[in-house]
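seq:
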Amino acid sequence: MTLNFWARNRSVILYGVSLAILLFLMKWLEWRFIIVDYAFELYAGALAVIFTALGIWLATKLTKPKTNTIIVEKEVMVTNGDFVLDEKQLAGLGISKRELEVLQLMAEGLSNHQIAGRLFVSLNTIKTHSSKVFEKLEVQRRTQAVDKARRLNLIP
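struct:
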């Protein structure tokens, strides 16, 4: 049956196959001439696409945040308004009245120069009192000193 179909439609099949090959050849030649005629435009377009992709990739790499967000939970002291100086803590740490005054002014946010002006002493005296307070409270910075003094009820 297939031989009968082949014999009957042989010329039609051959014409169809030859036309398909000819059409493929013509399209291939057309593309070849397009590439030759418009080679610069095609290469420039390909280069533009490559650089656009490179720019997008580079922009995404540069705009990513490089730091991680770290959440620090800290206890906050809430005062009820009635401050009572803890004399035992004050005596136990060996903090003098003048050092306590310096610590209170630190808590107000004053600089060493402003504290010296308010207490009518030299800047070096304030620096000495500050370093003694840091030493006695076993801290490194002003904020740590103020925080620890508040926890110990030394300042309001």
